[in-house]
Amino acid sequence: MSKPEILKESAAAIKKYIKDHADLVLESREEWISALLEDHRKAVQGIGQSLKKSKEAEEKEILRVKALYQHDLSYGKIVCGVDEVGRGPLAGPIVAAAVILPMDDRFTEMILGIDDSKKISKKNREILAEMIKEKALSYSVYEMSNLDIDRLGISYCNHEVFRGAVRTLTVTPELVLSDGYKIKDYLGENIALVKGDTISASIACASIIAKVHRDRLMENYALYYPQYGFEHNAGYGSKDHLEALQEIGATPIHRISFLSNILK
């Protein structure tokens, strides 16, 4: 059915057509918006307004993400972004990811939706993580266990997962951007960016990969230790987690050094 023909149909039929033929409508979205807004029916005009808002939101998102890529591109070097997740939980590892993205001033490889991983829904994080892995020039994930944390301390492990993630990349970065603070004892060039996952594309991507990786680990641990709620608290001290610790005690994946004020 052509556009002139479908526009003669009811608002419900038009809405369904647009949903079922989204790619076709996208090719001439401006024309569709104009035609829908010019229709005398309020319901059809409303569909046009929705399309217009969707277009404006997409344009805003493109500008937001482009700024993240422009930041990394501005250094004129092979840039790697690193971020960690799991510094504060009572159980499980601390995990860092490092990501090197392809950079060009035409911005043809941008991944829309990247941001601080905590701002993104679980479903979208998982979709984005796969897109990042497909498009990255190189990425790596590095973790240190609860036993490492108890033996070496969280501060050392925090910096070591950063260093380890960078070490295991298949492409050598010329500059490492880290989220929040500089990497201790890292010998290469390193710049720390406060709230870096909202400034740098590569840090945002590292944030997403690290969180998806660790969340999946904790969901798997929940199968073995179902009483602790790891599938939803990721090892943090939620009410059900703390109650299980009091009633059952620690598991082999708990950080004993974190439990001195909880298990007395």
UniProtKB/TrEMBL annotation:
GO terms for cellular component: cytoplasm; ribonuclease H2 complex. GO terms for biological process: DNA replication, removal of RNA primer; mismatch repair. Its EC number is 3.1.26.4. Residues 77-264 form the RNase H type-2 domain. CDD domains: RNase_HII_bacteria_HII_like. Keywords: Cytoplasm, Endonuclease, Hydrolase, Manganese, Metal-binding, Nuclease. A divalent metal cation binds at residues 83-84, 179. Manganese or magnesium. Binds 1 divalent metal ion per monomer in the absence of substrate. May bind a second metal ion after substrate binding. It catalyses: Endonucleolytic cleavage to 5'-phosphomonoester. Pfam families: RNase_HII (PF01351). It is found in: Cytoplasm. The keyword Transcription regulation does not apply. Belongs to the RNase HII family. This is Ribonuclease HII. It comes from Proteiniclasticum ruminis. The gene is rnhB.
